[in-house]
Design brief:
Elements lengths: L1 H9 L4 H8 L10 E3 L20 E3 L20 E3 L20 E3 L20 E3 L20 E3 L20 E3 L20 E3 L19 E3 L16 E3 L11 H16 L14
């Protein structure tokens, strides 16, 4: 019954009704965090913009499709969660929050990201999964400190070449897209530690053995004819993952030579006498 009442009140824009949804949130929290997730919000409560020391703001699982310009006052914000809302475009004011380190945009209706996103040069983690992206926005390649990119469950068919310039990137999650080939740009990113291409349409995997930083590759649920070759110690999740990874050919050669070396010290075998009879 309580949730039903909240849902009905959410449709009424009057301030008293919106304040009911916010409960006792009238002053700046001591932990500098405001969590309004699952509050049936249809508009952002303006008085939160007065909490200028706010560091974390969670607005997940509401009915928001816009944000007020006054949000720009929250210049100390480091974490902003806008996932599970109704955003068709990223509100421009988000790009003014230059201290953001983590931005959650998953489960919306985004088809692109604005060029102004490049202003968020402190961004280290970006979640854009479960949107309507047909291609990875080029502006993502401008986020030089990005370490983790969650872009699963979109409609991606390829990745931009400029992605290789993100030398701080360590994990990339691309599950549930429309990739028919393993993205070539990832082959030029030896610093990647985790690659997830689960649930795509990849039929063949090139060797990943040269990716020196790789620790985990997830390639399950693809119509592949082979498992990706990886260096020793790299974990694989997918078909034939239990098979021994392809060794480094140079290391394999050195290993063979090391095994043969003791025999090279032995004297040559005696020649067989000409008159020796079997």
């Amino acid at each position: 019954m309580g949730n039903t009442i909240r849902a009905l009140i959410a449709f009424v824009p009057a301030n008293d009704c919106q304040n009911y949804l916010l409960g006792d949130l009238q002053e700046m929290p001591l932990d500098k965090m405001v969590d309004l997730s699952s509050s049936q919000l249809r508009r952002f409560p303006l008085h939160v913009c007065s909490f200028k020391e706010l560091v974390k703001l969670y607005l997940s699982d509401n009915n928001l499709n816009s944000l007020p310009p006054e949000l720009e006052q929250l210049q100390n914000l480091q974490i902003l969660a806008l996932d599970f809302n109704n955003f068709k475009a990223l509100p421009p004011v988000v790009c003014t929050l230059k201290q953001l380190c983590i931005l959650y945009l998953g489960n919306n209706k985004l088809r692109d990201l604005p060029l102004e996103l490049s202003l968020l040069q402190n961004l280290k983690t970006l979640w854009i999964e479960n949107n309507c992206l047909a291609q990875l926005p080029e502006v993502v390649c401008e986020l030089s400190l990005l370490k983790t990119l969650h872009a699963g469950s979109n409609a991606l068919r390829l990745l931009p070449r400029r992605l290789s310039g993100l030398q701080e990137l360590r994990t990339i999650w691309l599950s549930g897209n429309l990739l028919t080939d393993f993205p070539p740009v990832l082959l030029h990113m030896p610093f990647l530690e985790v690659i997830d291409v689960d649930r795509n349409n990849i039929s063949y995997f090139p060797s990943l053995a040269h990716l020196s930083g790789l620790k985990l590759v997830i390639y399950d649920h693809n119509p592949c004819r082979n498992a990706p070759k990886v260096a020793k110690g790299v974990r694989r999740v997918g078909r034939w993952s239990e098979e021994t990874p392809e060794p480094d050919p140079r290391k394999a050669r050195r290993l063979r030579m090391a095994k043969l070396e003791p025999f090279s010290q032995l004297p040559p075998p005696l020649s067989t006498p000409a008159n020796w009879k079997k």
